[in-house]
């Protein structure tokens, strides 16, 4: 850009003229998207303002250069005149160009607004038209959906009706199929029944089903059904068979069939038991389970259950005979209740372990293991425990009780208490293993019932026997003490005799100890409060009677001893007085 002599620039007016010749045109696209007014304004004026800013910068630099010279002197008059001529020109010559541009822009903006308003009007009109069409379409759709819902409701109703009809048809078909199956089975049963009703004892002409070992389970089931069918009403069933099959021989009744079926069932049951025993010896649990399952159709398998339990080694006669030796020890020696308790605990623990092992096998083999466990535990209590108690608790005679050297009645009572307590411990252990529906407590109480019924009589007789033995012991001790002192004088001997008959607290302590032991047994054997109270009262009465009798006899002995001592003292005093008189007479005669 070239500067003239008066300090103005010719490029400014040429650019303004070019802007008037070529006006700025605004487009609608300039206002779309992320619109920015600053960006639009900068786009319009950036072509004019940069040249102005550049000229302004150059003018400032020139002004400072003229105001201060390098030598420090001020400007001359001619230089100041030239500067003032430069200032008289316009400071912002682009104003006209900007005004023209802004006016042109306003006009174009008005045109653009009109165009936008026309487009908005067209769009609103089009939207209203489309909205009307849309509303009309929605109304038609709602009407169609309502009709569709009605159709679905009718369809659902028809489907429900068809489903109910199908269910009824299915029930009828199922019932008909069951009736058909029952009729088919009945025909087969009648055919098999006629085979068993042919002739007594003739089992050779039976169907292959009853001789095929691979179909034993099916044969057993059919045989049981036939036996129940035949045993209901032989005469009526015979006539029914005659009317269905036309066999006139059936009108005689089904007695022959019942007999033949019983023989066949017995034969089949024995065959299965033999097979079960063979599998048991081999410890073939699957085969045992198969046989037990088939045999369960015969009286719920009671025969195989009892057969299995009866063959257990724990019920061998040698084993049960050895139980008494384990518990009692040496048969020639007197049993000790403490040792017997230890032996019973050891034996009953062994029995519990054996039953626990058998429970594992029973659970794996039998379809009803609880029933087998009931039979097993019942057999244990009724055989092993009962036989052991018979040898252990031999009830003595009250008329001729055993002597104290033989243990007396107290030994029997102590053995009874130990056996009762340990047997109840066994019942608790067996219940923990499993005993089905068996009332183990009731069974044990029945084992001890003969002993419990007469317990109180034996307890009272034992206390009396102990008291009598204690009195005899004290009498013997007193007699031995008197004999050892036989050379002592009468007066001195009388005092010693009176000393031997004094009442001793230790003896009464023995009475109390016996009573405590008896009361502990009473509470053990009595389960009801009223029974315990009556038993304890009877036992405590024995204690009172013993203490009363002992004190009474002791007082009587003391009284007799005091009388004897007084009499001896009187005789001694009298003898001394006579001696003195004789001595006095003798001395007087001598003088």
How does this structure look, described?
The chain is mostly helical and 591 residues long. The protein contains 19 helices and no strands. The chain has helices at residues 11-21, 37-45, 49-67, 77-87, 95-196, 216-232, 234-245, 255-281, 285-295, 302-310, 317-328, 337-365, 369-392, 408-433, 440-453, 455-484, 490-500, 505-525, 529-590. Helix 10 packs across helix 13 (369-392) and helix 11 runs antiparallel to helix 12. It starts with 10 loop residues before the first helix and ends with a helix. 17% of the residues are buried.
Summarize the structure.
The protein is mainly α.
Unreliable stretches covering 5 or more consecutive residues? 1-22, 67-87, 236-251, 487-500
Number of helices: 19
C-alpha Rg (nearest Å): 66 Å
Summarize the helix and strand pattern as letters.
HHHHHHHHHHHHHHHHHHH
State the distance separating the first and last CA atoms: 205 Å
Give the arrangement of secondary structure elements.
Blueprint: H1 11-21, H2 37-45, H3 49-67, H4 77-87, H5 95-196, H6 216-232, H7 234-245, H8 255-281, H9 285-295, H10 302-310, H11 317-328, H12 337-365, H13 369-392, H14 408-433, H15 440-453, H16 455-484, H17 490-500, H18 505-525, H19 529-590
Describe the structure using short key phrases.
mainly alpha, single chain, elongated, 19 helices, 591 residues
